[in-house]
Design a protein that fits this description.
Blueprint (H helix, E strand, L loop, with lengths): L9 H14 L4 H16 L3 H12 L6 H14 L2 H12 L6 H17 L2 H18 L4 H13 L8 H10 L3 H19 L31 H27 L5 H19 L5 H34 L2 H12 L3 H16 L4 H19 L3 H15 L7 H10 L3 H7 L1 H16 L12
Helix pairs in contact: 1-2, 2-13, 3-13, 4-7, 4-12, 4-13, 5-6, 5-11, 6-7, 6-8, 7-8, 7-18, 8-18, 8-19, 9-16, 9-17, 10-17, 10-20, 11-12, 13-16, 14-16, 15-16, 15-17, 16-17, 17-20
């Protein structure tokens, strides 16, 4: 498009301007928007065109799933589903010493099939899991690190907001992405258990609490079979949620967007009719939190669309994807470079921003290499999930620090074992694409 103010291409100057704004601590969404508008001004486009692009980007039917999945997750936490699920898994583990680490991992995975957002999952179930783990002898920082890691898998385990956005950008079936992410999400959760032996727990084995001693008040003093049945019945409506959402999507009964609306209605029904915990105050607070969360996500989507438009118009896609392909003829080298870029950018930016910036460049490479875009979407999402708990700007770390009053540094250090096993999982998913095809068994 020719040279510009500083003798560089418009797209290149836009990228530089974006990082300058970030260094000046401008919020990510506005950094994207200001850099893109600066580039569009140089290209001769006015603000009226900016409005048209934003309107076109946020009015896609598929994106309607985002605010409703956020609202559904917040409602399910507010009406007591999260606590009942945690109580059930705690009872099911019996008196196994140290079992709250396993319980916390399982609850994180299960909640991931409800929430779809990493930071939202930390806020919803973090306080419950951290308290339970510390009562069981785990260090608070390690408990917070486990929650950060497990909640990060919310963007991998369907229904995932990240996969919805990837499906829109890559023009790939969202239902197919959900199906492909089931086994990889479970694998990442299982690998988390390998980090539990690295926990430095307080007290001697005889002094540590057991789950038997930590049973919730309604179930204390009952026989195991009795409390297991009672806790299952109490948690039944929450445990049914993933079956309802994912079963409906995979059976073809409704689309992912419709599933988000159904999940919201279901949460309202359970809270108002079954549990009777949905008061006007709870509803208002949930709507407020969901509105704020949805606005933050959609603001990034809106301004990132401008950024992506300039990237396409200035042919940065051709330039940078061509540079990637020229690096090596070995596809493993190219994939390793792409994953390294995702992991490093994940340390500084949120997943949605990274997708809008990198995917216009990465997707042509994916097609040129003949890779399955569905498999690549799952690998991408696991990479971004790792970024959620990687310092210095891992969003989950900030949320966990807020709810535990611990420093981000302490939680980040405690998360090192989880980071290592997560990188192992990412390597397995990248090396064995068949793992993302095993979800076909769930059809």
């Amino acid at each position: 498009m020719g040279d510009t103010l500083f003798g560089l291409g418009v797209g290149t100057e836009m990228v530089i301007a974006f990082f300058v704004f970030l260094l000046l601590r401008v919020p990510v969404a506005f950094a994207l928007g200001l850099a893109a508008i600066f580039a569009m001004w140089q290209l001769g486009f006015g603000l009226d065109f900016v409005g048209d692009l934003i309107a076109a980007s946020v009015t896609r039917f598929s994106l309607l799933a985002i605010p409703f999945f956020i609202l559904a997750g917040i409602l399910m936490g507010a009406v007591g589903m999260a606590k009942r699920m945690l109580d059930f898994f705690r009872v099911a583990m019996g008196a196994l010493p140290g079992g709250m680490g396993v319980v916390g991992t399982v609850v994180c995975l299960f909640w991931g099939s409800v929430s779809g957002s990493g930071p939202a999952s930390v806020a919803a179930i973090g306080p419950l899991i951290v308290k339970g783990m510390t009562d069981d002898g785990y260090r608070p920082a390690f408990a917070a690190a486990l929650v950060c890691t497990g909640a990060a898998l919310s963007i991998v385990i369907p229904p995932s907001i990240g996969l919805v956005i990837y499906g829109v950008i890559a023009e790939t079936s969202i239902s197919g992405l959900f199906l492909a992410a089931i086994v990889p999400g479970l694998l990442m959760g299982l690998l988390m258990l390998l980090a539990l032996p690295f926990a430095k727990r307080g007290g001697t084995a005889g002094e540590r609490s057991s789950l038997q001693e930590l049973l919730p008040e309604p179930y204390a003093g009952e026989a195991y079979a009795t409390r297991l049945v009672r806790s299952f019945l109490d948690a039944f409506w929450g445990l049914l949620t993933p079956i309802l959402i994912l079963g409906g999507i995979y059976s073809g009964a409704f689309t992912p967007t419709e599933a988000a609306i159904i999940a919201t209605v279901y949460a309202l029904f359970v809270g108002a009719v079954i549990y009777r915990t949905l008061t006007p105050a709870v509803l208002f607070k949930s709507l407020s939190e969901a509105s704020a969360g949805s606005a933050a996500v959609m603001l990034v989507v809106a301004f990132a669309s401008l950024f992506g438009w300039v990237v396409t118009v200035d042919d940065l896609v051709g330039q940078y994807s061509g540079a990637l392909l020229a690096l090596s003829e070995n596809p493993w080298v190219i994939l390793a470079v792409m994953l390294a870029i995702l992991l490093v950018t994940g340390m500084f930016m949120d997943a949605i921003t990274i997708m809008f910036i990198t995917l216009p460049i990465f997707l042509p490479v994916v097609r040129a290499m003949g890779w399955d875009p569905t498999w690549f979407g799952v690998v991408l999402m696991v990479s971004l999930a790792i970024g959620l708990f990687t310092p210095p700007v891992g969003i989950n770390l900030f949320v966990a620090a807020n709810i535990t009053r611990l420093s981000i540094e302490r939680i980040a250090v405690a998360a090192v074992p989880f980071l290592l096993v997560s990188l192992l999982g990412l390597s397995l998913l990248a090396a064995f694409p068949v793992l993302s095809q095993l979800g076909g068994w769930f059809r």
